[in-house]
């Protein structure tokens, strides 16, 4: 099934949760998954719902990585 992540179309397996996608991306980029905010179809998804949010074909996601520093 296809989703759009930060403007790029991606294939994901049916049954993939938001938490699974965040973890997969963190593993590939080396970034801390705790610092990611997610918008799904123009609505912010609270972290408490990432594990229970199953992605659907056509979802539009935006991931924002928080960066600390001074």
UniProtKB/TrEMBL annotation:
Family annotation (Gene3D superfamilies): 3.10.20.30
Stored InterPro entries: Beta-grasp_dom_sf, Mopterin_synth/thiamin_S_b, Thi_S, ThiS/MoaD-like
SUPFAM superfamilies: MoaD/ThiS
PANTHER family: SULFUR CARRIER PROTEIN THIS (PTHR34472:SF1)
Protein name: Thiamine biosynthesis protein ThiS
């Amino acid at each position: 099934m296809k989703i759009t992540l930060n403007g790029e179309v991606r294939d994901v397996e049916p049954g993939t949760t938001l938490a699974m996608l965040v973890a997969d991306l963190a593993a590939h980029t080396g970034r801390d998954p705790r610092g990611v905010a997610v918008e799904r179809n123009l609505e912010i998804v609270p972290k408490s719902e990432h594990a229970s949010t199953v992605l659907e074909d056509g979802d539009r996601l935006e991931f924002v990585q928080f960066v600390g520093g001074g």
